[in-house]
Amino acid sequence: MAAHASELEIAKKNLTNAIGDNVKHYWANLKLWFKQKISKEEFDVEARRLLPQENVHFHNDFLLAILTRCQIIVSTPEGPGSLQWQSCASKSDKSKGKKKCSSRQKFDHRFQPQNPLFGAQPFSPREAGGEEEELRLSAHTLLLPTRGQLEARMMVTAFEMGLDNVTEDAISTVVCAVEHHLKDVLTAVITRRKAYRLRDGHFPYAFGTDVTPRPYLKNSLSAYHGISECPPPSASLAACPPPQVSPDDAEQKAIHLLACSSDTLPAPLPPISMFDLLEALKVHRGVMPSHTMYALNMERILVQLWHPSHEELEQDRIHRQRLAGKEGMPVS
Amino acid sequence: QVGKSDVMAGSVTSSSKERPASRTSFIPELQSMMFALGDTRRPLYETAALVEDIVHTQLINMLHQACEGASLRGSRVISAEDILFLMRRDKKKLARVLKYLQFRDYKSKLLKNLEEEDVQQEPGGLAAGGNQRRQRLAQDFLAWMDQTGEFLSLAEKQEVDPVKQERMERLERHTRNMDPAQYAEFCESRQLSFAKKASKFRDWLDCSSLELKPNSIATEILSYLAYETVAQIVDLSLLVKQEMTVKNNPVSHVISASYIHYNTHTESSPATVEPPSGAIQPCHIREAIRRYNYRHTVGTHAYRRSGMAFLTC
């Protein structure tokens, strides 16, 4: 890892020396390529324009160093991961937070049996560009970004800001931070849909317990008080052990609680939709304090929620008919 | 994997990498403390390291806020009053601190009596005298701060705590099954706390970045709060861990929501809940801290003080 890091620094230094003043253009192009706004070929053309003829290999070296460091080029992307990308590209609306599979793709050189339908995609570990680019964006795979992807992304931003390198600790922190943020958004959505209990005034837990005894009935009053007062704190003075109930007691109390709650369960809710997400973000504005992020994401959600009206669909149909008529094709 | 990463950023963070390697570390003591509080027989090393980080960050943040309070007061040291002031919002926690101060007074009185071999004074009486300084300090301060009479009533509750009584009984039942070696080990770990190693605690805390330093009573209270923080973290992490297990029927759902299952227990687990397997992991602790801070983040105005909520204030 340290060897890779120093290789990267050397490559970067060579590159910046070769480019000279226009280094900002180069970083801007790198960023665009990472976001998949321009393709690799266009990036190469730009690099050739910025670098003098004999130093173009610095550009290749630099890219190679980044990809090696982030272990993107060395690994074979997993079969199921790429299959997922193929299928996800065709589906249009999925809320971002819904699919949270584990992000740790294994980077050993395992032989993955491929689905024959997708046999047209050859996977060769030594092939640069191509497949790795496709898998780079989390918004396409709908998985949490892998450590390698995050590392690459962080380095792009670091270089743009004029910094040299990104440490391992920083990457670990960002990995935690991404998960933390997504969980906060999910908690905001879920707390609006389901009941939960609060411990100590701060800690929400037991999401989705439908068991609340009715406080206006005499025999359930004690059960209600038992719930609303938080369970006794575990350690007051140092010599106190944690309290423990016997299994029979626990079961008895649980059944008593179930009996005291209402006899009609609330109707099962539909899965979390974009409307839920929109409302949660509106109400709990503090989940995304940054205005840029918030505004951007709210716009994306609103765009996803858009649907053409009957008039627009009709117009669309007429337009297609006209186009088909012009080309002499049969009307679809 | 996420080895030594920083925990949630507060206004001041302490990463295990920033502190020099020769620095004192409470990790082995923390491991025993966590065992006594409900974790498995051998808590994980990285879990204890994370807990140490969290406790240290929280204490330093508390000290910074107490320091601001002390300088406002015009005092030259951080005293018990400043810490009690930080805790003013939560009555239960404040009551427990007061009990702890009573306990320390009682203990120092006992020790003094033993030294002087004064036979006339009864060990059971809490006669007013020069040796009740902590309590009087606390009470004076609360009287000053109190406007509705709610604080003064906290100090006067002398009745037997039914919860504590219940716990003593259960402990007795639980330890009946232990053999002498296990019992000795268990007692050792229960008695361990930060207060026992006061000088090490002071080194570990490292108040060099503060303008004002805490005095001895304040340091005592801080060591107590450190222990409380560890207890709170273990409780919350066990709750998180137990929620992660799959539950099949409504009864086990309710049991899991109502009781925390502690690992120190050798009896069989509550009927329909799966027995806990393995120790508390760093991911459980992170999730517990995230959830504890959740309402604080969501409700935080942009201009309010940022940083994590205190687990014991």
Automatic annotation (TrEMBL), chain A:
Keyword Nucleus: yes
Pfam families: SAGA-Tad1
GO molecular function terms listed in the Swiss-Prot or TrEMBL record: transcription coactivator activity
Origin: domain of life: Eukaryota
Renumbered residue ranges of the record's region Disordered: 80-105
Listed GO CC annotations: nucleus; SAGA complex
Role description: Probably involved in transcriptional regulation.
Protein name: Transcriptional adapter 1
Native source species: Xiphophorus maculatus (Southern platyfish)
From TrEMBL, chain B:
Region named Disordered: 1-23
Location in or out of the cell: Nucleus
Pfam families registered for this protein in UniProt: TFIID-18kDa
Single GO MF annotation: protein heterodimerization activity
A Gene Ontology term for the protein's cellular component: nucleus
Entry keyword Transcription regulation: yes
One BP annotation, GO: regulation of transcription by RNA polymerase II
CDD domains, sorted: HFD_TAF13 (cd07978)
InterPro entries found in the cross-reference section: Histone-fold, TFIID_TAF13
Alphabetically ordered keywords of this record: Activator, Nucleus, Transcription, Transcription regulation
Tree of life domain: Eukaryota
UniProt family annotation: Belongs to the SPT3 family.
Name the record gives this protein: Uncharacterized protein
